[in-house]
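SUBJECT: protein chain
CONTENTS: sequence, structure tokens:
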Amino acid sequence: MSNEKQYPMTAAGKQKLEEELEYLITTKRKEVVERIKIARGFGDLSENSEYDAAKDEQGFVEGRISLLQTMIRNAVIIEEGSDARDTVTIGCTVKFVELPDEDEEEYTIVGSAEADPFEGRISNDSPIAKALLGRKVDDVVKINTPGGDMDVRIVSIK
């Protein structure tokens, strides 16, 4: 068994990472190599900002390719919620209200690889998700966030 970190994600999230990896390998890598080749033609490499920028981009692309390969290799597919559930798990959507204001929020808990808070998808490593995992409907949960503690009541899990 590998000691590498596992990356929980949905099947759709894994597909998205595979598509990004394919693009980086087949298209972006070639574009960067071409930029390096053109920049070399400008002469002295010690003062060639185009060459430096292209090499920096190459480093970023290769790093991203390596990370994506690791994430895909160590992906643990989770099922997104569709039916009502009784316990908060990765892959489910949780609706809760902040207490005492009753402001309602809803998030889908996903692996860090596909988290996007602006789309309502939070990482299982986030303070909110960590506090909610394993809880049930009507549980009141104290969430420690960088902005301070907040109490919430779970309204639904699906």
